From TrEMBL:
Location(s), subcellular: Endomembrane system; Golgi apparatus membrane
Domain Palmitoyltransferase DHHC: 373-413
Name assigned to this protein: S-acyltransferase
Record lineage: Eukaryota, Viridiplantae, Streptophyta, Embryophyta, Tracheophyta
InterPro entries, per database record: Ankyrin_rpt, Ankyrin_rpt-contain_sf, Palmitoyltrfase_DHHC
EC code(s) of this entry: 2.3.1.225
Keyword vocabulary terms for this entry: Acyltransferase, ANK repeat, Golgi apparatus, Lipoprotein, Membrane, Repeat, Transferase, Transmembrane, Transmembrane helix
A GO CC term attached to the entry: Golgi membrane
Length: 415
C-alpha cells in the first residue's frame, strides 16, 4: 500500500528552531515575503489579504505555487469556504489538477470538510475525478476515516463507494487497512464488495489482518461468510495466515476461531450448532405434552374406574386446563414476533442507474448525526436505538435484551 496519498501539511507552518538563536533579519524578511502570496492567504483564510493581492496587485489565483499546488487546494484543505468562494469567483478552476493529478475535492476529503466540498460540487467539481493512482475522493476519505464525508458525497452526489483504484483497491480496502471501523460499516451498508481482490489478490480482510486491526476484522467477519476467511492472495496466504506472519497473534486467533466455527458449527460440534439454532422450546413442549397425556391417561382415567368423587374430578380437570393453557402460552412465546426489524432485501446489481441509492434510508437521522454504530451491515438497515442484531436468529430486534434458548426466541420489544 505504498502509494497511499500523503497529507499535505500547511507550508506556512513554522518549523521548530534547531537552536535558541533568534533568526536573522534576512531570514525574517524572506519568511514574510513567502507568506505574502495568495497561497498563504488562501490557506489561512485571510480574505482581506487575498483581495489586496488579487485586486490591488493583480496576482493570479489560477496558478500553482513552488510545490505545484493551487491556492484553491490550500483553501479547501483548511475549510476556508469564503476564500475558496472568492478564488472561484476570480478565475480559479474547480477541476484544476496538480502534479499528482489531485483536484481540490481530493484535498477537502483528507480532513473531511463537507462544507467546502459542497461548495466545490455545486460549482461543478467532478465527484469521480481520479488522481495518478486512481484515487477518487471516496478513496481519500476512506484512507483518513472521514465517514461523514463518504456518506455525504455518496448520498447527495452519487459518488461510487466501491470504485477500484489503479491497484484494484476499493475504498473498503483502504478503510480496512487503516482500521476505520465506522467507515467499513458505512461502506458495507452501501453495498461495497467485501470479497473484491486487488492486484495482489488481497481482499479488505487481508489488509485488515496485515495491519492487525482487530475491530476492522471483526466487522468484516460479521458481515461476511466462510469463503471470505478462506480466500488466498497471490502468495497463497489466507487472512489468518497473513496475521500470523505479521505476528498479530490476537487477530490470527480470532480469524482461525471464526473459520472453525464456520467449518464445524458451534464449539466444533455441528449437531450442537443446529440444536442451538432451534433452541430447547420444541423439546420442552414435547415433554410437557407427553407428561400431560400420561397424567390424563394414568391418573384421571384410572381414577374414574375407581369411582372418582366430583370434587377430585373437578380438581384434576382444572389441572389439565391450566397445563393446556400453559402449553398454548409457551407456544405463543416461542412463535411470537419479538420485535424483528425488516431487513433490506434490495439488489444493488439490479438497481436502476437513475434510482437513488438507499433512498429509503439516506435521510435517516442516525446517519445525518453520524451514529454509525446503528448501521447493521448484515440486515443492511439503520437500527433504532436499543436495537441489536441477534446472531442466533440472524435478525435485528427492537429493544433487544437477549436470545432465550428456553423459549427459542429473542427477548425484545414484542416479548
Amino acid at each position: 500500500m505504498a502509494s497511499e496519498i500523503e497529507v499535505l501539511e500547511d507550508t506556512t507552518a513554522a518549523a521548530a528552531p534547531a537552536a535558541a538563536e533568534a533568526p536573522s533579519v534576512a531570514e525574517v524578511a524572506e519568511e514574510e515575503a513567502l507568506k505574502d502570496d495568495v497561497y498563504t492567504a488562501a490557506a489561512y483564510g485571510d480574505l482581506e489579504k487575498l483581495q489586496r493581492l488579487v485586486e490591488a496587485e493583480g496576482r493570479p489565483v489560477g496558478g500553482t505555487d513552488a510545490s505545484g499546488y493551487y491556492a484553491l487546494q490550500w483553501a479547501v484543505l483548511n475549510n476556508r469556504v469564503a476564500a475558496a468562494q472568492y478564488i472561484l469567483e476570480h478565475g480559479g478552476d474547480v477541476n484544476a489538477v496538480d502534479h499528482t493529478g489531485q483536484t481540490a475535492l481530493h484535498w477537502s476529503s483528507v480532513r473531511g470538510h463537507i462544507q467546502v466540498a459542497e461548495l466545490l460540487l455545486k460549482e461543478g467539481a467532478k465527484v469521480d475525478a481520479a488522481d495518478l493512482y486512481g484515487y477518487q475522493a471516496t478513496h481519500v476519505a476512506a484512507q483518513y476515516g472521514q465517514t461523514a464525508f463518504i456518506y455525504h458525497i455518496v448520498a447527495k452526489w452519487n459518488a461510487d463507494p466501491d470504485v477500484p483504484d489503479n491497484d484494484g483497491r476499493s475504498p473498503l480496502h483502504w478503510a480496512a487497512y487503516k482500521g476505520f471501523a465506522d467507515s467499513i460499516r458505512l461502506l458495507l451498508y452501501l453495498d461495497a464488495h467485501r470479497a473484491r481482490q486487488d492486484k495482489e489478490g488481497c481482499t479488505p480482510l487481508h489488509w485488515a489482518a496485515i495491519r492487525g486491526n482487530l475491530e476492522a476484522c471483526t466487522v468484516l467477519v460479521q458481515a461476511g461468510k466462510k469463503d471470505d476467511l478462506m480466500v488466498k492472495d497471490k502468495t497463497g496466504l489466507t487472512p489468518a495466515q497473513l496475521a500470523a506472519d505479521k505476528n498479530h497473534r490476537q487477530v490470527a486467533f480470532f480469524l482461525d476461531n471464526a473459520r472453525r466455527v464456520h467449518d464445524s458449527g458451534c464449539n466444533g460440534n455441528p449437531t450442537f450448532a443446529k440444536l442451538s439454532k432451534v433452541g430447547l422450546a420444541p423439546l420442552l413442549w414435547c415433554i410437557a405434552v407427553v407428561l400431560l397425556a400420561t397424567y390424563i391417561h394414568s391418573v384421571i382415567a384410572g381414577q374414574y374406574n375407581m369411582s372418582m368423587t366430583p370434587a377430585f374430578g373437578l380438581f384434576a380437570w382444572s389441572g389439565v386446563f391450566v397445563a393446556t393453557a400453559g402449553l398454548v402460552m409457551f407456544y405463543k412465546c416461542s412463535r411470537k414476533d419479538p420485535g424483528y426489524i425488516s431487513a433490506n432485501t434490495r439488489d444493488s446489481h439490479n438497481q436502476r442507474d437513475d434510482e437513488p441509492l438507499l433512498k429509503m434510508e439516506l435521510d435517516n437521522p442516525a446517519l445525518l448525526t453520524g451514529n454509525w454504530s446503528q448501521l447493521c451491515i448484515t440486515c443492511k438497515i439503520v437500527r433504532p436505538v436499543r436495537s441489536k442484531h441477534c446472531s442466533t436468529c440472524d435478525r435485528c430486534v427492537e429493544q433487544f435484551d437477549h436470545h432465550c434458548p428456553w423459549v427459542s426466541n429473542c427477548v425484545g420489544k414484542g416479548l
